[in-house]
Amino acid sequence: MASSHISKAESSYIQAGLTSKDPQRLDGRNLGDYRAVALETGVAPLANGSAKLNIGRNPHNGSGGTEVVAATKLEVETLEEGAVDKGRVVCTVTCSPAAYPHLSPNAVEDLQYDLTTVINQTLAHPSLHPGNLRIIPGRKSWLLNVDLVVLADAGNIYDALFMAARAALWDTKVPRTRFVQFKARKGGVDNVGKGGDGMDVHQDVTSGFDTRGAHSAADFELPDYWDEGEVLDGRDRWPICITLNLVPPNHFLDATTSEESAVPLKLLLVFSFASIEVPTIQAMRFIGTGETSSPELRQLIKEGQRYAADTFKALQSKLKAEDVRRNQKTRELFASR
Amino acid sequence: MAQIGFDRRRINGPEESFAVIFEDNEEDPSKWKAGMARVGRLPLAIRPIFLQPGLIEQANGSAFIETGKTKIAVAIYGPRQSKNIAFHDKGRLNVEVKFAPFSCQKRRAPIRDAEDRSIAMAIHQAILPSVRLETMPKSVVDIFVTILEADGIEGCVAVGSVAASAALVDAGIEVYGLVASTSAAVNGDELWLDPSNEEAAQSKGTLVLSSMPALNKITSVWQNGEMLPDQVLAAVDICEKQCVEIHTVVAEKLRETHSL
């Protein structure tokens, strides 16, 4: 378990507050309230897309909260025989030891392994695959690395990771590529055949072993463009996560570290809003020792969908505002030259 | 001699070589197209389960399970003293999953990889709520899951959870109830239970439900891929019904084994 250990008394104090008729939380929030979320895109100039996200920063001194930096990096990959030529998406989560001072190095490693598994299984699923990661069909494609770094954990890490990943992927630009083709001159092949070996080579007959003709494009180049390329295909689909912390009969959102360790069961619901009316569930996980029943689950999914829609709308408007802000900045910079 | 430095005494094969592709003599899943009915099984039919508890002598409890091409052996050691871990008033459940090198189409190098841990996580979550860990403070229960033959991750998680729960009972560890688990995949508009590797790969989304049918409780839902909320709920209901049947089979087998 990621959370720090709290005493039995503290745990039962938190639980009693949450399960009472008039639910109380330590910081005075309602059960469905989020802490303030701060988001900025384009924080890593060397990445193809990046974002920095903070949940629950202290407004007075600007410290604290869960802090995650996400960055995407595209790499050219030469395809092996028989590999899927659509490109790949690989997600990795790294936890700074400073974020988990109470855990041993081994435990931090296990934790980042577990976080990576959930993120990678969800975001690298074929149903979310962007369509423009192909460079040369059958030869070369982009490998999209999504790296997430946890700088501080003050609870609700899954929601933060998915939100940061979505922001970074939204911000990602795929460089434009252009095919380059090498063609042997017709009849100019005699300088190849004449190796002085006196072999009779029939140039007109195509050999069955010659597979070079299979793909016309041999290589690619990057044309110079004023922007860094086109956005990832299907970027509206990248999902967001809602963690429902279950304290029967109640559930609440955005748990702090101490609340997390007092909660017996967490339900992760990952929603994708390709269209806002018909969201799809992209992943679902239970974490913890508690259990639930199917009528409860039905209710939770319904509620979760509502929370996710609200979060999605807020995040979407923020991402659009970030796009405007950065384009404005670039234009002003350009004009002042 | 075309090249200089050509030595005909050496093997002059090509620099690269590729694995031979064998023609699959079982039913060809590539013939299946979206919207077609399931080949060889009804949509809601699962593969028959063979379960044998207590095959591994030196372990406190064990189970071997086989369903279709999935074969998994589970051994349980403990509850035993937890070393180099600070005092804890509850016991700890430790699940380790290992793929045999020969368990998949491609050889699996005998090192720990990401998939081992993700399956271990899923099995851990499926059985964790059923175990009475508060009865064994300061102890640890080690569960070793060896996958001898794999046919899809979803199948491994589901079948592994059933076997692990049966092995816990075989070891005499107190549990609230037996855990039964089923996987499902959405193919086209249909829901297919207990998908094989190919079926899961062709599906849009998959789901593994683990429950304690005796208590009517769900311990875990492990879902991946694109599914509508209604599809998830429908899948949960169907899987829950199937789990009741699996539970009967497992309970019957355990009773049979332990009454001898």
TrEMBL record, chain A:
Gene3D superfamilies tied to this protein: GHMP Kinase, N-terminal domain
Tagged with keyword Ribosomal protein: yes
Main location group: cytoplasm
Pfam family, one: RNase_PH
GO MF annotations, alphabetized: mRNA 3'-UTR AU-rich region binding
UniProt keyword Translocase, yes or no: no
Coiled coil ranges: none
Keywords: Cytoplasm, Exosome, Ribonucleoprotein, Ribosomal protein
The protein's name in its UniProt record: Ribosomal RNA-processing protein 42
A biological-process GO annotation: exonucleolytic trimming to generate mature 3'-end of 5.8S rRNA from tricistronic rRNA transcript (SSU-rRNA, 5.8S rRNA, LSU-rRNA)
Family the UniProt entry places it in: Belongs to the RNase PH family.
Domain Exoribonuclease phosphorolytic: 34-175
The organism's place on the tree of life at top rank: Eukaryota
Organism of provenance: Coprinopsis marcescibilis
PANTHER family named among the record's database cross-references: EXOSOME COMPLEX COMPONENT RRP42, EXOSOME COMPLEX EXONUCLEASE RIBOSOMAL RNA PROCESSING PROTEIN
From TrEMBL, chain B:
Keyword terms, alphabetized: Cytoplasm, Exosome, Nucleus, RNA-binding, rRNA processing
PANTHER family assigned: EXOSOME COMPLEX COMPONENT (PTHR11953), EXOSOME COMPLEX COMPONENT MTR3 (PTHR11953:SF2)
Keyword rRNA processing annotated: yes
Pfam family, one: RNase_PH
Gene Ontology terms for molecular function: RNA binding
Similarity remark: Belongs to the RNase PH family.
Gene3D superfamilies: GHMP Kinase, N-terminal domain (3.30.230.70)
Protein name: mRNA transport regulator 3
Ranges where the Exoribonuclease phosphorolytic domain occurs: 46-174, 178-238
GO biological process, one term: rRNA processing
Entry GO terms, CC: cytoplasmic exosome (RNase complex); nuclear exosome (RNase complex); nucleolus
UniProt-annotated location(s): Cytoplasm; Nucleus
InterPro entries named among the record's database cross-references: ExoRNase_PH_dom1, ExoRNase_PH_dom2, ExoRNase_PH_dom2_sf, PNPase/RNase_PH_dom_sf, Ribosomal_Su5_D2-typ_SF, RNase_PH
Keyword set includes RNA-binding: yes
SUPFAM superfamilies: Ribonuclease PH domain 2-like (SSF55666), Ribosomal protein S5 domain 2-like (SSF54211)
